[in-house]
């Protein structure tokens, strides 16, 4: 589990097949630790000084942007939270729902306004003023659009994540709010529709 507060910008040292090796300034990483890489929860399978390696499955490859990374690509990194940690962002599982495309980037009064386009399976779980993780970054939706959403990013977040390297047309990993997904699951259960026959059977008419 993560918070969406990025701890380091790592550098891809090598990526081949289903394995990725990343250089990082983060310390205390051990084999078996969960690490969010651009929002994707990966497990460190080996750790050397200043570097860790992780494997990712074909499913992860299909629905995320990991396969688009190259040697020297920059990535957002966050270690899994501890039970004693403050939850400064929002609850992020590291399980990506899909990708979105950056349509607009605008410098707006020291903030950065970014517009994303996405598929309906993602926008369906987006709520105005709600939370979304973009490449692992915890952000607040400023508004919903017909085929996407808009966010405003503060300079601190922009300058300390890989958002500073993004351009229009780039794809990003998206994880929608887990609470919204649970609510949809529980409220979409099929119930018997009310009919005149049911009302008569139960003595209402």
From TrEMBL:
Superkingdom field: Bacteria
Catalytic reaction annotation: 2 6,7-dimethyl-8-(1-D-ribityl)lumazine + H(+) = 5-amino-6-(D-ribitylamino)uracil + riboflavin
GO molecular function: riboflavin synthase activity
Pfam families in the cross-refs: Lum_binding
Gene Ontology biological process: riboflavin biosynthetic process
Root EC class: transferase
Lumazine-binding repeat coordinates: 1-90, 91-187
UniProt domain Lumazine-binding: residue ranges: 1-90, 91-187
Keywords for the protein's UniProt record, in alphabetical order: Repeat, Riboflavin biosynthesis, Transferase
EC assignment: 2.5.1.9
Pathway as given in its UniProt record: Cofactor biosynthesis; riboflavin biosynthesis; riboflavin from 2-hydroxy-3-oxobutyl phosphate and 5-amino-6-(D-ribitylamino)uracil: step 2/2
InterPro entries: ATP_synth_asu-like_sf (IPR023366), Lumazine-bd (IPR001783), Lumazine-bd_dom (IPR026017), Riboflavin_synthase-like_b-brl (IPR017938)
Record PANTHER family: RIBOFLAVIN SYNTHASE, RIBOFLAVIN SYNTHASE ALPHA CHAIN
The protein's role, per its UniProt record: Catalyzes the dismutation of two molecules of 6,7-dimethyl-8-ribityllumazine, resulting in the formation of riboflavin and 5-amino-6-(D-ribitylamino)uracil.
NCBIfam families in the record: PRK09289.1 (NF006767), ribE (TIGR00187)
Protein name (Swiss-Prot/TrEMBL): Riboflavin synthase
């Amino acid at each position: 589990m993560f918070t969406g507060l990025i701890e380091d910008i790592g550098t891809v040292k090598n990526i081949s097949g289903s394995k990725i090796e990343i250089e990082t300034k983060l310390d205390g990483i051990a084999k078996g630790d969960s690490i969010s890489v651009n929002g994707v929860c990966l497990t460190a399978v080996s750790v050397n000084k200043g570097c860790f390696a992780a494997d990712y499955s074909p499913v992860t490859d299909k629905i995320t942007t990991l396969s688009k990374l190259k040697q020297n690509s920059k990535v957002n990194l966050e270690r899994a939270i501890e039970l004693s940690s403050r939850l400064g962002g929002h609850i992020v599982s590291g399980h990506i729902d899909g990708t979105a495309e950056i349509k607009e980037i605008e410098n707006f009064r020291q903030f950065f306004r970014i517009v994303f386009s996405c598929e309906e399976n993602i926008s369906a779980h987006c709520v105005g003023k709600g939370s979304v993780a973009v490449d692992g970054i915890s952000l607040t939706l400023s508004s919903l659009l017909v085929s996407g959403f808009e966010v405003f990013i503060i300079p601190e977040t922009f300058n300390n994540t890989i958002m500073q390297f993004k351009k229009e047309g780039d794809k990003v990993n998206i994880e929608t709010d887990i609470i919204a997904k649970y609510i949809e699951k529980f409220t979409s259960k099929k119930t018997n529709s009310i009919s005149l026959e049911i009302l008569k059977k139960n003595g209402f008419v």
